[in-house]
């Protein structure tokens, strides 16, 4: 099966490198695109928005034959959910890694500081302690050295969802900084981030307790979870 791994903010496709071996060993074909504007710190990202990232992954989907599974980490969750909305009959499953199916029109993360030249990785002091759980000092340093500003539009745009058939696409939510119970509490409280979840017909929740970047802190376990979910 073709598996498309979409990175979150500040990351390129190589961020999945320690996650892919279990998928390859299981016989899957893995695609790890770098989203437009995140090719390098020198990239021109001024005119790039969420819709451009969605279109990039749609083009990849359209170039492939057969069933496809989408995996989106963090801000990449908004991308893969939008792709499922645009190509619901092509997607076998969507996996959200510490993310969720971003609702129509809700900005991905408008709280981040930045401007038209990009949204840089904030100081670590601005993150919750849970986000940074299990990251070593060396990993934090390497992350910051390789981080690329995210396009302003990718963080501040909201998805445009038009096809209710997206609710027929099975999803898996891998919670690393939240539990199933916490997600259910957020749904009950009307938190927009999870507003789409009750409308999706087939939802699996897997808990992988660690920080917000399991591809760095628990990559092998994350890869095995993906293999299991692809087998559903």
Automatic annotation (TrEMBL):
<protein>
    <submittedName>
        <fullName>Alpha/beta hydrolase</fullName>
    </submittedName>
</protein>
<dbReference type="InterPro" id="IPR029058">
    <property type="entry name" value="AB_hydrolase_fold"/>
</dbReference>
<dbReference type="InterPro" id="IPR000073">
    <property type="entry name" value="AB_hydrolase_1"/>
</dbReference>
<dbReference type="InterPro" id="IPR052897">
    <property type="entry name" value="Sec-Metab_Biosynth_Hydrolase"/>
</dbReference>
<dbReference type="Pfam" id="PF12697">
    <property type="entry name" value="Abhydrolase_6"/>
</dbReference>
<feature type="region of interest" description="Disordered">
    <location>
        <begin position="103"/>
        <end position="125"/>
    </location>
</feature>
<keyword id="KW-0378">Hydrolase</keyword>
<feature type="domain" description="AB hydrolase-1">
    <location>
        <begin position="3"/>
        <end position="221"/>
    </location>
</feature>
<dbReference type="GO" id="GO:0016787">
    <property type="term" value="F:hydrolase activity"/>
</dbReference>
